[in-house]
Amino acid sequence: MRDILRRLVYGDLSEDEALRELRSLQLEELGGRARLDLGRFMRRGVPEVVLAPGKSPSDAARLVIALAERQGQGLISRMGAEHQAAIREQARAGGMDVIDYTASARVLRAGFSPEALDGKVGVLTAGTSDVAVADEARMLVEACGLQAQMAADLGVAGLHRFVGPLAAILEWGADVVIVAAGMDGVLPGLVAGLIDLPVIGLPVSTGYGHGGAGEAALGTMLQSCSTGLVTVNIDNGVGAGAAAVLFVSRIAAVRSGAVSAAAAARSQRSRQRSRQETARRRAEA
């Protein structure tokens, strides 16, 4: 949107041309089979993510490449090997880069990078089996211009393992922490009970027997004794990432506003001192 507005101001676009481009950002139909919501990022600050299962590799790749062409980047989650191959082939043909996040990916148009925001999201996982879902969240966070830092395999079966990585995430300056866990799903509540940051619990469908498809982890997080723990649905890494982005974007906006207000106050004090000094000199003259 900023690019369109700049081109309008500089005279590279007429009003009608700018209006057409803005409308095309809102909704676009590809081959009558899928509608890309190109205005989602403008409305919500969170981009659309293509869900690979249920789509042929060629269709999934076509959608992701279309998003990248029109918005600078295209996101996809839960890819299989055939999806990955199709996306890489089409991205290479279009001169685009691919950033892999386990079973997810970002396709970037040449020269594109998201507008950087002053915000950080920590991502912790109870086990290595939880990384693929946590990576969905990390992908979304980084796609929105925020920094992400991940530490994996910190489950409560070896409680000593998570203290150091958690301390490192806090020292790094995380604004929000996402904690992914399967099995009994205890780790998010444990983390939420120890720190004063917003914690997003991400239940994962890993485990054995009863509740092994993520129901036990979800139930534990919903029933957590740690007040304030926010929980998304099972395997919903995209939802966890989106929630973190919305939290941190608001924090970044407040932070930016506070910096601007402080700068304005300093400038006003400087002008006031200058006026006082000028008045003093005139009085002495």
Write out key terms for the chains shown.
alpha/beta, 5-stranded parallel beta sheet, Rossmann fold, 10 helices, flat, 2 domains, 285 residues, 48% helix, 4-stranded mixed beta sheet, single chain
How many strands in all? 11
CATH architecture of the largest domain: 3-Layer(aba) Sandwich
Helix content: 40-55%
Q: The CATH topology of the largest domain, please? A: Rossmann fold
Give a verbal description of the structure.
The N and C termini lie far apart (56 Å). The relative contact order is 0.09. The chain is α/β, with parallel strands linked by helices and 285 residues long. The protein contains ten helices and eleven strands. Helix 6 (131-143) runs parallel beside helix 10. The strands form three sheets. The protein has a five-stranded parallel β-sheet with strand order 8-7-9-10-11, sandwiched between helices. The longest helix has 48 residues, at 237-284. It has two domains: 2-108, no CATH class; 120-247, Rossmann fold (3-Layer(aba) Sandwich).
Could you give a short description of this structure?
Helix content is 48%, strand content 17%.
Please write out the topology.
Layout lengths: L1 H8 L5 H12 L1 E3 L3 E3 L3 H5 L4 E3 L5 H15 L1 E5 L3 H13 L3 E5 L2 E5 L11 E6 L5 H13 L3 E5 L11 H10 L3 E6 L5 H6 L6 E5 L11 H8 L7 E2 L5 H48 L1
Parallel strand pairs: 3-4, 7-8, 7-9, 9-10, 10-11
Antiparallel strand pairs: 1-2, 4-6, 5-6
Helix pairs in contact: 1-2, 4-5, 6-10
